[in-house]
């Protein structure tokens, strides 16, 4: 068995800046999540590819669901990731986090944990420096549990 | 590669013993006298390496009766595909004649009559005989791999915290294992055992929950027959969801497909000629994984307890399903040359306990393990006039008995019993012993709770469990069967979406529909919540059996399947 090494920090070092979205009171619905993505994307429809969202299919603990995003990018010159937004379309506040990147980030990789109150889609959208946008989506199930085996 | 033909040949040879005149019900099959150990183990060797695969023994040291399911539905793309084929359909698909040893081993058809003729299956001493014979034939070039769910499921495994199985398996000397129910002994006990194992416990998908980094070795490289074979371990992905997470809070699991791909790539980079995934994912998950992750030559599947007489091929990946409870062991001969798998020969060997001679050393070890508990193990509790079994998507008679005990002893309106796939069968008229009872409920969180639940909560639970079983994306399936229900009936549409599968919930006692806002007294067991109050389930069932020394099982009509595809 391996001893835990604390390279969690290095994992998230690619994220130069991490901002938590502000509170809103109303429960989000899918249109709210879509609207936030549209705002972020500047009205463009995000394409698939470039961005990979990794999340569990079924959450072990809905209070702290680990996710990570990885955007294929040289992070130099014209091939730069500007920012990545994470949206959970069934949460009271759909906007979970926005990661901002610079050339000094080196890679566009970020890891965080989020609370998911119920089964829903987690959506990651990357905005490139040239304004193009890419999206990946994964359904994360929040289950009562038990009865397996 | 002619596993199909071999099976047919074996089938033809064996069916000749039974004779062609048998059709319908068999009161007695006398085939076992004519069938020999050599018949069962006959195998034309091939290539340079042999893999032996055992999985989901569920702590069954002794031979058992185990009835395979009569209902095992597949949804979406896998509807009607193995392993979602049962009974006479299974016999037709694999050209097995009714009444033959294979028909008895692989299906529920005429189970009681055939069980009386062909006897119990499994037993680790019989398995030891097979392992030793194969090792004698193939020398050092044998890999024995254990897919897990080995340490839990019997009275003695509970009493010894898994040590009985650890000792017996160590004597069998596997080369690697992975796990699932093993973790329900708790972090400390699991670590304590693993430190003593003379072979690796692999789990590439087990991560430290806090730091999200590998907690177990992902793979081990073996050099056999001049080839390098990487065995990658994949523990049950939903262990912390299906079982109590509080018992092993520092471990996170999950399918982690990207991690599997990374480990396969690392093994290839490390010089592996072939990659074997020793998996506890469940068959449908592995079938999906094989179609999505390249570079895996063989997946030794587990968890869902499927026994398939031949491999299922997905792209270039062979999927092997070796059954459960020690009923079968897979022999897979491999021809590995020039860095790749060039050929294979497969046989799922049915372990007929009356035919395969027990290995004396293992027999001695098992009886030594059991000696301190023998009086309790054989203590008789009651008799049942019908067959007690568990496997099947919706109900089993042993669960009907458990639910009846919960309703009666715990004075509840409704009983819930988890849809486990482990648990042995008891033939009609056979005494139900403490051992039989524990084979159906031995676990480390056995408390039988008694709570009130609203009708809505009951529906939510049924919907949730049904989605774990019938979600069309296998990655969202947990591999158990439907939760068993007593005191209530309902209809289920497996093909529907979550939230709309369950309908027509009716309280049996009153005949009234279950009301969403009304509260009902519910008794159940195996809650994954910490500090669940109540007596162990085996005490509840024993109390019921003491009061009802002769029990009957009636056909379960509490679950109606609607919109069922053929």
Give a verbal description of the structure.
- The complex is a heterodimer of chains A (149) and B (566).
- By secondary structure, chain A is mostly beta strands.
- Chain A has helices at 8-11, 30-40, and strands at 17-20, 47-48, 51-54, 65-71, 81-88, 95-100, 108-114, 120-128, 133-140.
- Chain A has one domain: SoxY domain (Immunoglobulin-like, Sandwich), CATH 2.60.40.2470.
- Chain A is 10% helix and 37% strand.
- In chain A, a hairpin with a 6-residue loop joins strand 5 (81-88) and strand 6.
- The longest helix of chain A is centred in the first third of the chain and has 11 residues, at 30-40.
- Chain B is α/β, with parallel strands linked by helices and 566 residues long.
- Chain B has 18 helices and 25 strands.
- A 6-stranded mixed sheet of chain B has the order 7-8-10-11-13-12, covered by helices on one side. A 5-stranded mixed sheet of chain B has the order 5-4-1-14-15.
- In chain B, helix 6 packs antiparallel against helix 13, helix 15 packs across helix 18 (537-547) and helix 16 (434-441) packs across helix 18.
- The two termini of chain B are 31 Å apart.
- Chain A binds chain B through residues 1-2, 4-8, 11, 54, 56-58, 60-61, 66, 111, 119, 139, 141, 143-149, and chain B through 149, 180-181, 191, 194, 208-217, 236, 238, 240-243, 245, 252-255, 258, 303, 418-422, 460-461, 464-465, 467-468, 473, 475-476, 478-480, 483, 498, 526-528.
List the helices and strands and how they pair.
The complex is a heterodimer of chains A (149) and B (566).
Chain A: H1 8-11, E1 17-20, H2 30-40, E2 47-48, E3 51-54, E4 65-71, E5 81-88, E6 95-100, E7 108-114, E8 120-128, E9 133-140
Parallel strand pairs in A: 2-9
Antiparallel strand pairs in A: 1-6, 3-4, 4-7, 5-6, 5-8, 8-9
Chain B: H1 3-18, H2 37-41, E1 49-54, E2 63-64, H3 87-93, H4 101-106, H5 111-118, E3 121-122, H6 124-138, E4 142-146, H7 155-159, H8 163-172, E5 176-177, H9 187-196, E6 207-208, E7 219-224, E8 227-234, H10 239-242, E9 251-252, H11 257-269, E10 274-279, H12 283-292, E11 298-301, E12 312-314, E13 317-321, E14 328-337, E15 340-350, H13 360-370, H14 374-377, E16 380-384, H15 397-409, E17 414-417, E18 431-433, H16 434-441, E19 448-454, H17 455-470, E20 484-486, E21 488-492, E22 502-507, E23 519-525, H18 537-547, E24 550-551, E25 559-561
Parallel strand pairs in B: 1-4, 4-5, 8-10, 10-11, 11-13, 16-24, 17-23, 21-25
Antiparallel strand pairs in B: 1-14, 2-3, 6-9, 7-8, 12-13, 14-15, 16-18, 17-20, 19-23, 21-22
Helix pairs in contact in B: 6-13, 8-13, 15-18, 16-18
């Amino acid at each position: 068995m391996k001893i835990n090494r604390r390279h969690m920090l290095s994992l998230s070092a690619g994220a130069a800046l991490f901002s938590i979205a502000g509170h809103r009171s109303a429960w989000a619905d899918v249109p709210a999540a879509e609207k936030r993505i549209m705002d972020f994307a500047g009205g463009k429809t995000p394409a698939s590819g470039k961005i990979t969202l990794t999340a569990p299919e079924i959450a072990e603990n809905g209070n702290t669901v680990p996710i990570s995003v990885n955007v294929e990018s040289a992070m130099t010159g014209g091939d730069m990731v500007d920012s990545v937004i994470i949206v959970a379309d069934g949460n009271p506040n759909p906007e979970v986090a926005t990661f901002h990147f610079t050339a000094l980030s080196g890679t566009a990789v970020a890891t965080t944990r989020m609370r998911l109150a119920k089964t829903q889609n987690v959506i990651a959208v990357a905005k490139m420096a040239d304004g193009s946008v890419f999206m990946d989506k994964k359904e994360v199930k929040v289950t009562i549990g038990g009865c397996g085996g | 590669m002619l596993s199909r033909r071999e099976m047919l040949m074996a089938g033809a040879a064996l069916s000749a013993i039974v004779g062609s005149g048998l059709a319908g019900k068999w009161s007695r099959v006398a085939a076992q006298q004519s069938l020999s150990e050599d018949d069962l183990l006959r195998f034309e060797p091939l290539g340079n390496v042999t893999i032996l695969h055992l999985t989901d023994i569920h702590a069954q040291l002794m031979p058992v009766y185990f009835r395979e399911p009569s209902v095992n539905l597949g949804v979406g793309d896998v509807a009607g595909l193995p392993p979602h084929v049962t009974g006479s359909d299974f016999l037709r698909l694999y050209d097995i004649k009714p009444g033959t040893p294979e028909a008895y081993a692989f299906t529920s058809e005429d189970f009681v009559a055939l069980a009386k003729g062909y006897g119990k299956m499994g037993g680790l001493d019989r398995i030891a005989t097979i392992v030793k014979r194969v090792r004698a034939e193939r020398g050092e070039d044998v890999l024995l791999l254990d897919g897990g769910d080995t340490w839990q499921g019997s009275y003695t495994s509970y009493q010894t915290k898994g040590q009985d199985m650890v000792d017996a398996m160590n004597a069998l000397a596997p080369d690697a294992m992975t796990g699932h129910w093993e973790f329900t002994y708790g972090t400390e006990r699991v670590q304590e055992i693993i430190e003593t194992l003379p072979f690796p416990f692999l789990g590439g998908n087990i991560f430290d929950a806090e730091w999200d980094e590998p907690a177990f070795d992902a793979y081990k490289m073996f050099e056999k027959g001049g080839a390098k074979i990487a065995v990658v371990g994949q523990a049950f992905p939903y262990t912390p969801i299906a079982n109590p997470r509080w018992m092993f809070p520092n471990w996170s699991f999950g399918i982690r497909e990207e991690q599997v791909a990374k480990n396969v790539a690392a093994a290839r980079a490390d010089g592996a000629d072939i990659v074997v995934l020793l998996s506890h994912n469940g068959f449908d998950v592995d079938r999906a994984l094989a179609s999505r992750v390249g570079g895996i030559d063989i997946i030794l599947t587990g968890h869902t307890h499927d026994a398939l007489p031949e491999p299922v091929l997905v792209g270039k990946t062979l999927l092997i399903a070796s059954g459960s409870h020690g009923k079968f062991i897979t022999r897979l001969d491999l021809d590995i040359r020039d860095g790749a798998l060039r050929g294979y020969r497969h046989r799922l060997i049915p372990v007929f306990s009356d035919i395969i001679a027990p290995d004396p050393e293992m027999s001695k070890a098992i009886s030594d393990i059991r000696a301190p508990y023998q009086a309790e193990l054989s203590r008789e509790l009651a008799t049942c006039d019908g067959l007690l079994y568990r496997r099947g998507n919706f109900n089993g008679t042993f669960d009907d008995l458990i639910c009846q005990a919960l309703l009666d002893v715990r004075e509840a309106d409704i009983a819930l019993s988890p849809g486990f796939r482990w648990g042995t069968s008891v033939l009609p008229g056979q005494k139900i012993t403490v051992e039989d009872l524990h084979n159906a409920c031995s676990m480390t969180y056995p408390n039988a709770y008694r709570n009130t639940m609203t009708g809505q909560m009951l529906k939510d639970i049924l919907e949730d469990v049904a989605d774990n079983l019938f979600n069309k994306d296998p990655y969202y399936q947990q591999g158990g069967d439907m939760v068993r229900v007593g005191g209530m009936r309902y209809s289920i549409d497996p093909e529907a979406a979550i939230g709309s599968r369950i309908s027509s919930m009716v309280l049996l006692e009153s005949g009234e529909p279950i009301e969403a806002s009304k509260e009902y007294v519910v008794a159940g067991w195996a809650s994954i919540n910490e500090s669940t109050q109540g007596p162990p389930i085996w005490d509840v069932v024993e109390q019921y059996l003491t009061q009802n020394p002769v029990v009957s099982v009636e056909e379960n009509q509490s679950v109606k399947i609607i919109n069922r595809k053929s």
